[in-house]
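Let us practice reading a record.
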Amino acid sequence: MRATAVLSCAVLLLACGGSETPPPDTAAAVPAPAPAPTISLADVAGKWTQVTRRENSDSVLVTSEVVATADTTGWTITLPGRKPEPVRVRVDGDSIMTSAGPYASVLRKGAQVTTEGVVRLQGGKMVGTTIARYTGGGADSVVRFRTEATRAP
């Protein structure tokens, strides 16, 4: 009976043992993902007419003029009845990140606002979102907007 038990254990160990050749490396067969598209600031250089809407509304709140340059310097936004405000920009892949302010809000009298946004070039337009942070705190001190800019004639 001992011989049967030892023989059974030996057969079991041999059956469960790994093969001497490792499985093929399937990771090498998977192609690398395509690089993310990038945008050049030269693609958007010029004057743009930008409309701003609340995130969940189609009503235009503000129409402004954006001047974009082929590099990260010289970008401005001109709000109705105002002097141009400088805009800081940087590129990350297919996105242009913007920030401006603080400056006097055109939507909230007496409040200062700082904005941060991201736009992408879609169908010849710069389309994106902007987050406005108003001074004074409160429940609505941070507001999200949709922006869309078309090349000015």
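A brief commentary: Residues 123 and 150 are 10 Å apart (CA to CA).
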